[in-house]
Amino acid sequence: MQGFLIVFEGVEGCGKTTQLKRSQDWLRSRGLVECWGNQGDETPVVVTKEPGGTSLGLELRQILLAGQSLIIQDRAELLLYAADRAQHIEEFLKPQLAKGAIILCDRYTDSTVAYQGYGRGIDLRLIEQINHIATGGLESDLTLWLDVDVEIGLKRARERGIADRMEEAELAFHQRVQQGFRELAALYPERIVRIDGSQNEEGVQLEIQEVLRQHLWQRML
Ligand code: Z5A
Asked: What is 4-220's CATH topology?
C-alpha cells in the first residue's frame, strides 16, 4: 500500500515538534496496530521537516533561518524554500511513500502560503505556481493545524532560547501568518484539521490521536 503523508502546521511555538514526536511514539507503540491490526506492526513511521529534511535542505535551513545579518529578499526566500522542498520530495518523501511509510512532516506547502504569502505579501497565485513546481502536485494526505494564539506561541518559542530570523519578525507579521492558516483551513476542510493547540501537551496529543485514528482507519477501508 502507498504510504501516508501527515503534516503538522502552525505558527511558531504552537507545539508541532513536541506533538510530532509524541505521535510517532504513539503510532509505533500501539496506534497503528489499533487502526490496522498486524499490518500496522510492519509499517514504518518516519519523521522529517521543512526546511531541512535532506543534506542540501540542512544547508538551506541554515541560510534561511540565519539572523538579521543576512538579508534575503522575499522572492529569493520563496525560491529557497521551494528548492528545499523539491529536494526533500525526490530524496525522501517519494521513496518513503513508495515503501508504504507513514510520514510525519514538520511543515510543508501551507507554511509557504502562510509565511511567504500572507506574512510577506507575495502574490498567492505565484506561491501556488511555485509550490506546484516544487511538489509536482504531491499534497499531504492530512494536515494537522495546531491553532494557538500567536502571542502564546512566540512566548513559548522565546522561552526556549535564541530567536531565529522568522521569530525576530514583528507581531503583525505572525498575525498575518496565523490568518493564512485560518483561511487555508476554511478553504480545505477535507485535508486540514484544526487542533486546539492551547491545551496542555497531553490534551493536544489526545485530540491528535483521535483524528489520526479516524483517518488511518478510513485509509484501511
Ligand atoms: N517557513 C517558511 O517561512 N516557509 C516555508 O515554506 C516553510 C517554513 C516550510 C522553520 O522553523 C521556519 O521556517 C518557520 C517558518 C519558516 N519559522 N520560524 N521561526 P521550524 O519549523 O524549525 O521552527 P518553528 O516553526 O519556529 O517551530 P518551533 O518554534 O520549533 O515551534 P514548534 O515546533 O511549533 O513547537 P515545540 O518546539 O514543540 O514547542 C515550543 C516550546 O513550547 C517548547 O519549549 C515546548 O516544550 C513548549 N510546548 C509545546 N507544547 C506545549 C503546550 N501544549 N503547552 C505549553 N508548552 C508547550
From this structure: Rossmann fold (3.40.50)
